[in-house]
Write a structure and sequence with these properties.
Layout lengths: L1 H18 L3 H23 L20 H31 L5 H8 L4
Keywords: Cell membrane, Membrane, Transmembrane, Transmembrane helix
Protein name: Cation:proton antiporter
Subcellular location: Cell membrane
Length: 113
């Protein structure tokens, strides 16, 4: 059930990224998709165990692997910085085109033939 909800989150973000025409909704869809992907990796990393080896010193307990957790923490920070950079770009585009429709932006900044 948890895997299905994570897959649904990823697909909602993916289809929002493809089918929405507004740049702000595309950024939000990208954030939703990355949240689903990070949730999936956290779920896979915790499948071996839920306990940390630092706090529990008992024998025979399945420990969680700390390496994927560190990688996911790095992915969250990189995703946040990319999202901030995209929002700054959209703010600059909104000066000339406040509707932020992707087709209007492509017409305004597209290559002249």
């Amino acid at each position: 059930m948890l895997e299905a909800s994570i897959l649904t989150t990823i697909l909602v973000g993916f289809f929002g990224l493809i089918f929405k025409k507004n740049l702000m909704t595309k950024i939000i869809a990208m954030d939703v998709m990355s949240t689903g992907i990070i949730s999936y990796y956290v779920l896979m990393a915790s499948s071996s165990g839920f306990f940390t080896p630092i706090l529990f010193q008992a024998e025979g307990i399945a420990y969680a692997d700390p390496v994927p957790q560190a990688v996911i923490l790095t992915a969250i920070v990189i995703g946040f910085s990319i999202q901030a950079l995209m929002l700054v770009g959209v703010m600059k585009l909104a000066r000339d085109n406040p509707i932020l429709d992707i087709e209007d932006v492509e017409k305004a900044y597209g290559q002249s033939e």
